[in-house]
Every structure is written in structure tokens, then in C-alpha cells.
Amino acid sequence: MWETVIGLEVHARLLTRTKIFCGCSTAFGAAPNTQVCPVCLGYPGALPVLNRQAVELAIRMALATGCEVHPRSVFARKNYFYPDLPKGYQISQFDKPLATHGALQGVRILRIHMEEDAGKLVHESDVSLVDLNRAGVPLIEIVSEPDITSSEQASAYLTRLRQILMYAEVCDGNMEEGSLRCDANVSVRRTGEPLGTRCEIKNLNSFRFLRSAIDYEVRRQIEVLESGGAIQQQTRLFDPVAGETRVMRSKEEAHDYRYFPDPDLFTLAVDDAWVGDVRASLPALPEARIERYQREHGMSVVDAEVIVATRAVADFYEAAAEASGNARAAGNWVRNEVLRVLNEQKIGIDDYRVTPQMLARLIRLLDSGAIGGKAAKEVFEEMSTTGDEAERIVERKGLAQVSDPTVIREAALRVLQNNAASVEQFHAGSEKVFGFLVGQLMKEMRGKAKAELANEILRELLTKSTAHS
Ligand code: ADP
Ligand code: MG
Ligand code: ZN
Q: What are phi and psi of 25, to 5 degrees?
């Protein structure tokens, strides 16, 4: 039996307005080389100055994943040549990272360190161009222990990591724009044996690619080993078109980065007070919310996962639950109806016309018996397209429900009078005909009678009429 062993290295772009060591903008999508200065262009003598907000965001993520934040960490120079790296080295934390020893979904986090991004090469038909807007954009790298045992687990871990990054407003999580990139280290071993040799698959920028790349790589390694070969430690690239991983470089070609502490930068000192402030500013995170929804609201874990997937939806749900006093109903509406409408309208919840308070008022109308279930659905659809208040829609469309027993009784008596034959059949023991009579009563009341009450009154009248006959 083969076992799969995976460790993930995730790069997340921090949501700062300016770069990690200079004041240049980090905005995505600007014209090439318009957001650069002597520092991020690597001009000799230009001095880097650490961005405090970047450190703060890195600490946020460290705390959100249960890491220990170290009071002293060190920025080092990672030396290599590449045209997108103007200084000839990348500033990164190496042997003294900001944080270590976290955990997420049962996967241990080895370390979280800060570093700067490199520029970007743009390959055209006969030239390669370099855009240095991205050079010096702040990143954190989140490195897991090799605790992941399948592509599904890798995907679930990355999903949660991305959620937390977005909840904590550390990173926008946009994989298409490269705000979140993942390298997967993969090896296989026979059950009970020590860890096998790993290959690292670089730059996976979607969940689907992550899963396919791992699945392909596991099959490839097992095939090599079963046919008597050995795995060479390599860096590989995933080709999404062919669905395969290919060698990029082998261990022998691996760089010797000659790391050394950057003499232009001080040791980064983070005191307890700062860590405490950052901790206090963290929002409730997905796992805590899932646990609370289950415990306090009786929600299933499956529904809770759906609702916490984005923080805005979870916040919407919580506000609607609070305002309506009916968390269960709020959960069902959000899970089944709100998310469907957002999907249909192709909008995010921030652009949704219905506010949590509006949904709460609809829930209260339903709970108080002012409208019935069918009418509530109709009101909801109308709210979702027009943005009108539930009460206004109920009034405009005449959807209010009648729950006055006197009115229902009068209508019921008329129905019994007009359906003497059915009444007789009922008395002869046909329960089936009761349903028909209820239908007639609802029709008589143009569908607006409160259903339970209509049932109750009708049965009462029918039994009475037996007693009299
Ligand atoms: P490098 O800098 O060479 O990438 P690191 O130690 O920083 O090395 O990170 C290695 C990554 O590979 C970590 O995520 C770790 O969990 C993972 N890893 C280490 N050994 C194995 C292995 N045998 N199989 C799969 N993943 C591994
Ligand atoms: Mg690596
Ligand atoms: Zn700059």
C-alpha cells in the first residue's frame, strides 16, 4: 500500500497600500514600471525601510493560525540571478522567521515568514519584457509540515487558509491575479516506511490545478518506484493543458542562495503589547463560527461551512439571525434562498439589495402568522429584485394572511353548504374528502387563510355537524 505525503508552501500577497521596503503603490494592474523607485529597482545606496503595516498583517495571520510570534526575527538576503530581480537578491526571512509552530485543520504549520515579491517577466513573440511593479510587494510564506495525505486534504487546507487570510483582511485571496500562490511538495512511501524523496511543484494558482498536479505526481512517483526506479528530488512545473508535471530543475541544479542577514535592515522586534493589540483586533474566524453556529443555532456542519465560506455572508447571516430572533430560519433563508439569488444575479452579497434587517422583518412576518410560507417566498423574490421592504410588498400584493377565526369559520360554513355531497362522504368515513374540502376553503379565501387554522376550523365544524345529524 502506498501513502501520499504532502507539504504546502503558500505565498500570500499582503493587503498593504505600499510596498514592503518603500512607499511605491502595490495596486494591481497599473501600466508596467510605473510603480517603482530606487529602492525597489535595487539602485545602489537606496535604503529599504520596513513597512509597519506589512508586519502587522503578517502577525495577524500568524495569530489566526495559532503560531507563536517571535520577539526577534531577521531579514536575510537570498542571492540569485534572474531578470525579474533587480537587486540580485530577494529580501526574505530565513533562519529566524517571524512565526512558527501553528496548526490548521490538523496540519501543522512549520513557519510563517515575510519576504518581498519579485517582478514579472512578460514573454512576447520575440522579446521578453520585465515589469517591476510587483518587485517589493510584501508577501508572507506559510509553510506546512508534511502532514497532508491526499489532494482533497490539500485543497481543503488551502481553502481554509484562504478563508482565514480573507477574514483577517491579510490578503485578498485572488488566485487569478496571483495574490495567493501555492507550491506543493509531494512524496510517496509504503505504509510504515520513512518519508520518501519529494518533488516540489511550483506556482499552482487554482484549486483544480493543485488537485490535478498532486494526483498526477503521486501516480508518476508510484509508477517509477514500482518499476524499480528511484525518485530524484526535483522542482517541477504543472502543465494544465497536458495535465502533467514536468521537470524544471533537479536538486543538483538547486541554487545555493548564500543567505546572510541584510545589513541594511534592523532585527525586527515585536513586543507582547503589539501582539496583544493585533490579537484583540482579529475578527471571529471561520472555525470558531462553525462551532458556534452548531452549538447555539443547531446548524448542521455542512450548512455552517457554506455560510462561513465568505465573511460577508457569515456576517449577513449573523445580523439576520440576531435581528429576527430566529437563527434557524435566518440560516435556512441565507443558505437556500439568498445564496441562490446571488448566484442568479451574479453579484456578491455587498451588492445585494436585501439587507439582513430586511430579511429579518420578512422572517418576523412569517413567524407572527401575518403571511404564510408561500407568500413569504413570493415576497422574498420581490424584495430581491426591487429592494422593497417586505411590509410594502405584502400590502401592495395583498399577501397578508387571514388568521381571524370568525372570518375563516364563515367561509368554512359556506363551503360545507355548497358541498353537501362531500360532507356526506366524509361522514360515511372518507378521510380523503377532507383534503378536498380544505382545498375548497382555501379557494374560497383566495389562498389567504392561515392553513393550520383553516384545517382546524373545518374539522371542528365537520365533527359538530356529525353530532347534530
Ligand atoms: P525548501 O526551501 O527546500 O522548499 P522547506 O523545508 O522550506 O524546503 O520546505 C519544504 C516543504 O516540503 C515543507 O512544506 C515540508 O512540509 C515539505 N516536505 C518536506 N519533506 C517532505 C516529504 N518527504 N514529502 C513531502 N513534503 C515534504
Ligand atoms: Mg520550497
Ligand atoms: Zn519602490
A: -70, 150
